[in-house]
Design goal:
By secondary structure, the protein is of the alpha+beta class. The protein has nine helices and 16 strands.
């Protein structure tokens, strides 16, 4: 008999066990891989996809693929998954406080955050954790926290997180039907013509051998439309307001490049020369900020708009350009 048994403790009680979850209406419609990432907090994505592929995760006693969409009443078998404490990604106190202090609106269904530049929205591709993992780590009692949409890592500004599955479905439907309006501010090189008020050019994603994603204007790409408006001029650059009508990857960045006015600080689409020139003048990162969101609050008929203040670094850069 081992010491634990002698002390009245059953070591079997401390081992991870098979769990059976019944899917309710709030979870219905979610992909099984995304459900497991929320359910098995801290478990690496590679492990989640492996247990699905090997048939260790089952729905209604049958094997499923990672893109299976859950239905109300589904019985999900989750196998025992053991992860060492070293493998669990945990956000530090400073990061959790930074994300919490960036919240500009919250109710029982929705959180709107003014995302800081440099923070990925989620982990992956060498990033152990992003904003959503940080928020989940900071709020272990919240049963559901999911990104409604995404922002590039270096883009700052308004980002929505759903606190209920029903809110996520509602907001996705609003996005699909064009009822959510997103507004960005971008500083672009050169003099953007006032008459150029929209870019309508199809976009196609390409993956390089290095694994880097690049988006290009391509006749075989997906239809993409962005509206632009000149806000201010600073000699050799222009502050524009950009409103994406569609929601393609890197859409504003590539449409600005297609117009001949790449966004300053964009290390993927702008030239090194222009980035270095403006870095010396105070623009030290991608000058793209999601300044406003106009939505209908999920579960309500009330329309609201949310504004994220321009971060201090971008504000200082504009002030410096005005004094040049």
């Amino acid at each position: 008999m081992n010491k634990e048994s002698q002390n009245g403790l059953n070591p079997e009680e401390h081992k991870p066990r098979v769990q059976i979850d019944e899917i309710d209406e709030d979870r219905a419609g979610q992909r099984i891989d995304n459900y497991l990432m929320t359910r098995l907090k801290g478990v690496p994505k590679t492990l989640i996809y492996r247990i699905v592929r090997k048939g260790e995760v089952r729905v209604n006693k049958g094997r499923i693929k990672a893109n299976y969409r859950l239905r109300c009443g589904d019985m999900v078998r989750i196998p025992p998954v053991r992860v060492s404490a070293k493998e669990l990604p945990h956000a530090g106190k400073w990061l959790k406080e930074s994300v919490e202090s960036s919240i500009i609106y919250e109710d029982e269904r929705l959180i709107v955050v003014n995302k800081p530049s440099g923070l990925a929205v989620h982990g992956g591709s060498g990033i152990s954790l992003g904003l959503i993992e940080t928020l989940r780590d900071a709020r272990p009692s919240e049963p559901f926290l999911e990104l409604v949409h995404r922002l590039d890592r270096d883009t700052s500004g308004c980002l929505m997180i759903a606190k209920k599955r029903s809110a996520l479905r509602d907001l996705h439907e609003q996005m699909r039907t064009g009822k959510i309006q997103k507004t960005y501010w971008a500083l672009v090189g050169g003099r953007w013509p006032s008459r150029k008020q929209q870019i309508n050019a199809p976009l196609k994603k390409n993956t390089l051998q290095s694994g880097e994603r690049i988006v290009r204007v391509d006749p075989e790409g997906k239809a993409s439309l962005t509206r632009f408006k000149v806000m201010d001029r600073f000699g050799d650059c222009t502050l524009v307001e950009a409103s994406p009508i569609t929601g393609r990857t890197h859409q504003i960045r590539v449409h600005a490049l297609h117009a001949g006015h790449a966004i300053i600080g964009d290390d993927k689409y702008a030239t090194k020369e222009i980035n270095q020139l403006f870095k010396a003048r105070g623009v030290k990162r991608l000058f793209l900020h999601a300044v406003r969101l106009d939505i209908r609050l999920p579960g309500s008929e009330e329309r609201r708009h949310f504004e994220a203040m321009l971060p201090q670094d971008l504000h200082n850069a504009l002030r410096g350009l005005k004094s040049d």
